[in-house]
Write a structure and sequence with these properties.
The complex is a heterodimer of chains A (299) and B (389). With 299 residues, chain A is mainly α. Helix content of chain A is 74%, strand content 4%. In chain A, 49% of the residues are buried. In chain B, strands 7-6-8-9-10-13-14-15 form an 8-stranded mixed β-sheet, with helices on both faces. Classes of the chains: A mainly alpha (299), B alpha/beta (389).
Chain lengths: 299, 389
């Protein structure tokens, strides 16, 4: 049995999650040169908020599609607002401090978020209701489920929408201006703080979408789930060229595909070595990443 | 398998509770024989420790009702080890200071290991009821004995089941590269080869991920008759669900660390038909029917997975004191090693030269309608038989 097509579908599904979370890393880095280590945990918070909304709605026999939409809406709003709050409380006061201070602060925020969820929801696993079936249709020898199609499709739509927003709208232009030169942008009359907050909101909301989708699809969540996924997504952002939006999308999908093909065809226990080896190889040849425009700051 | 967390809260509580009941050592020494029971009574695993302690109390009650040993009553002395190395050493020291003649208990291997050192120095026997790490008896200390199976005994058992019950010709073994899971996987693969079962896949996954379908797709393409996952329950729940998604051929099996309600919740109906190798719960043991009823009547709770093993641990210690005709700690250790075919609730108990039980008991359970039910066991003639559900 040839498993290529099946692995391709699985790689795209995994990559969609990485790409959605990678966007948050890359947007924040692009604008304030901060590697937001708390971003993976915002993804985790998104999954938990979604769980808190979805579970009673499904229990009340609401149609599952509506329930998921309600969970997505609540989770994106809450997590987006939390992202803005984190920025206001922890990052903005340090914008002009040495880079190292703000980086350490990001680690602190990450731990604070993890431990808050640990205390509120407990150390064990929470489980989303089982609402998705495995129904779908065959593509050659492979099977793609509607759920997988939905995950890949909706993340593509979100990424395209973000790209259009950043490149075709007035606010998007302001974001890009800020990425080039903050002081010049301020002189042009751009409300820098507001634009940074918007960036945090969008990045966190995208992570929340990924969190809820992950919960609905895989059903198992816990307070530590943001760590591994955050690490992979950050790798994806760097691989694509951190600060670059199409780069994060491509990097996310690429890491997902590499992971699937490597563990499917070669050895699953060597997958991490291989994936991170590729990252090192790419950065050695092209230090700015595949699509990168600027050199990654040395830490 | 017993998990190994370190909870700061647990430590704090342990210190507080330990400070509370200061035992009056001078008076109690003469009339009773003291057996120490170190278990977690605070922290995440407090409920497991409580179960074990109840098993010990029930055992002492029965022994004392039958006249005690050497004309004296057994007294159970509990100490909180909080499933934490530091508290465990203090707990062991307190038991020694309290004048126990032997120790029977323990839950987390990571707490039991440090407890061994002070107990060995004091020359006091430690009979383990629940800690399965092979190292505990591999250190070669004569004072450590164990009434439950070892992680590296489960592998041959699982292999026997796959080869001789499922008649598998091709098997896949997946672990997660943790010490426990890798050890179990290696032991299983070695034993499978002995049964001439072809091991078509032997590799590890990264724990903590969500999507294991690429690995499972690969395993599917190798057409195994059975796939054995030796890691923990959370990944197992995802894997059994994802295996069903891709229509993986053959049966999905897990090691004893997958025996958790979290697996049932994560996998939902997809877990139906999954098989798990595990030490039998008291309610699945034919010899322990009366025990389960009495335990539930007295403590208003199910007996938990290990209390019946603790019951037998106290039992063998009492037997050893009788055999030795003395409650001197060194005489007890000597007598424990000489115990032969002690008739315990969990079956016949004899120790090998390491102090491990010669025929460790494992059974296979099945997931059926969101519940674990008994499935198959090896009978006394070494043949497989289905268990009544």
């Amino acid at each position: 049995m040839d498993i290529f097509a099946q692995l391709l579908i699985q790689g795209l599904t995994i990559g969609s999650f990485y790409a959605l979370v990678a966007l948050g890393y890359t947007m924040v880095y692009g604008i304030i040169r901060l590697i937001n280590f708390a971003h993976g945990d915002l993804f985790m918070v998104g999954a938990f908020v979604g769980w808190s909304v979805l579970t009673p709605l499904i229990g009340a026999r609401l149609h599952w599609g509506l329930a998921v939409l309600a969970a997505l809406a609540a989770s994106t709003l809450f997590t987006g607002a939390l992202g803005v709050f984190v920025d206001r409380a922890a990052y903005q006061p340090l914008l002009n401090a040495p880079r190292l201070s703000i980086l350490i602060t990001a680690l602190g925020v990450s731990l604070a978020l993890e431990n808050s969820v640990l205390i509120i929801y407990g150390p064990g696993f929470s489980t989303y209701p089982h609402i998705l079936s495995n129904a779908g249709f065959p593509i050659g020898a492979a099977h793609i489920s509607w759920a997988q199609l939905g995950i890949i499709g909706s993340s593509l739509v979100l990424m395209l929408a973000l790209y259009v927003f950043v490149h075709r709208t007035y606010v998007g232009t302001a974001m890009r201006a800020l990425a080039v030169d903050q002081d010049a942008a301020r002189l042009m009359g751009i409300n820098v703080e507001r634009v940074i907050q918007l960036t945090f909101f969008i990045g966190s909301a995208l992570a929340a979408v990924a969190g809820v989708m992950e919960g609905v699809y895989y059903t198992q969540i816990n307070f530590f789930m943001g760590f591994l996924l955050g690490l992979r997504a950050f790798t994806a952002a760097v691989l694509g060229g951190i600060g670059n939006i199409p780069g994060a999308m491509a990097g996310g999908i690429l890491i997902g595909l590499l992971e699937a093909f490597f563990s499917g065809y070669l050895s699953s226990q060597w997958t991490d070595v291989f994936v991170f080896g590729i990252l090192i190889a790419v950065l050695t040849v092209k230090p700015t990443g595949l699509f990168g425009e600027r050199v990654v700051e040395r830490m | 398998m017993v998990p190994t967390p370190i909870t700061a809260l647990g430590v704090a509580l342990a210190v507080l509770t330990a400070a509370g009941p200061a035992a009056p050592p001078a008076f109690a020494a003469s009339g009773t024989i003291k057996i120490g029971v170190p278990v977690p009574l605070s922290g995440s695993y407090a409920s497991a420790g409580e179960d074990i302690l109840n098993g010990a109390k029930l055992a002492a009650e029965h022994i004392n009702a039958n006249g005690g040993v050497l004309g004296k009553n057994i007294e159970i002395v509990a100490e909180d080890d909080a499933c934490d190395a530091q508290s465990a050493v203090q707990a062991a020291q307190k038991l020694i200071d309290n004048g126990v003649v032997a120790v029977a208990g323990g839950y987390c291997s990571s707490a039991a290991l440090p407890e061994v050192t002070p107990l060995r120095r004091a020359g006091i026997a430690y009979v383990l009821d629940a800690s399965t790490n092979p190292k505990l008896t591999e250190m070669g200390y004569p004072n450590v004995l164990r009434v439950i199976g070892r992680d590296d005994e489960q592998g041959p058992f699982a292999a026997d089941f796959m080869a001789n019950f499922l008649n598998a010709k091709r098997a896949a073994v997946i672990n997660d590269n943790t010490t426990y899971a890798k050890g179990l996987a290696d032991a299983t693969v070695k034993a499978l080869k002995g049964y001439h079962v072809e091991v078509v896949y032997d590799n590890a996954i990264t724990p903590g991920q969500m999507d294991y379908t690429p690995v499972l797709t690969r395993v599917s393409s190798l057409k195994p008759d059975v796939t054995y996952y030796t890691g923990y329950f959370s990944e197992a729940g995802l894997m059994v669900k994802e295996a069903k998604q891709i229509n993986m051929p053959g049966r999905f099996m897990g090691g004893d660390a997958t025996n958790s309600p979290v697996l049932l919740k994560t996998a939902g109906p997809a877990a139906d038909g999954m098989l798990i190798t595990t030490a039998p719960l008291a309610q699945f043991l034919s010899g322990a029917k009366g025990y389960v009823a009495e335990y539930e009547k007295q403590f208003h709770a199910p007996p938990g997975p290990y209390s019946v093993y603790e019951y037998d641990s106290i039992g063998v210690v009492a037997q050893a004191i009788k055999d030795a005709g003395s409650d001197k700690p060194s005489a007890i250790i000597e007598a424990l090693h000489k115990i032969k075919d002690y008739n315990g609730l969990t079956g016949s108990i004899t120790f090998n030269k390491n102090g491990d039980r010669t025929r460790a008991v494992y059974i296979v359970i099945e997931v059926k309608n969101d519940q674990f039910v008994p499935f198959a066991r090896l009978n006394d003639n070494g043949k497989w038989e289905l268990m009544k559900q």
